[in-house]
Each structure stands twice: as structure tokens, then as C-alpha cells.
Specification:
By secondary structure, the chain is α+β, with helices and mostly antiparallel strands. The chain has helices spanning 7-25, 29-44, 81-89; strands at residues 49-55, 60-67, 76-77.
Amino acid sequence: MAHGDSAADKLKLAALFEVGNAIASSLNQRELLNRILEVACDVMQVKICTLRLLDEPTNELRLVANRGMGRYSKPLKVGESVVGRAVQEKRAYAVTDISQLSWQMP
């Protein structure tokens, strides 16, 4: 890193390094996904977060790791909810207040 890089940039680089180490050292998929989610939550400074993977045959997003939520969550269809819409449109959404979305959820 060049002199004068921000603390946020250093935090992101450290997070990437940590995820890389987790990938290299873990053969347990659930443990790995939970560690990736923990690092992402820390970087984004959020208390609630989920990680879903696409099940292509069913076109559903299945919960594989979460922080700050219960263990059960029904699968989401692509296009359903903010998460499903982000996958459908192949773009990210940063939502700080879900009640303030300017578009109607399907």
C-alpha cells in the first residue's frame, strides 16, 4: 500500500487476507462460509447479514450462513426480495433502511 492510504483501505486489505487464509486452511464448507460472512460483516460494520448461494436447478437462493438472525429462512426465488432482485439484475444494492426502498417488492 502506498503511504497515506486510508484506514478503511487497510481494513479491507486485512479482511481479504483473512478470507484468503480461511480458504487455504479450511476444508469444511460451512465453517468457511461462516468465516467469510463474519469478515464481510466486520468490514461493512453491520450486525445483521446473510449469505445465500444460488441453487441453479431450482433457481432459489438458499441460506448458507447468517449473523444476527434465526437459523431458519425459506429459500428465495431469483427476483424475489432485495436479494433476489440483486441476483436477477446482477448488481449490488446497499440498503440502509429497507422501509425506504423506492420500488415495490414483488
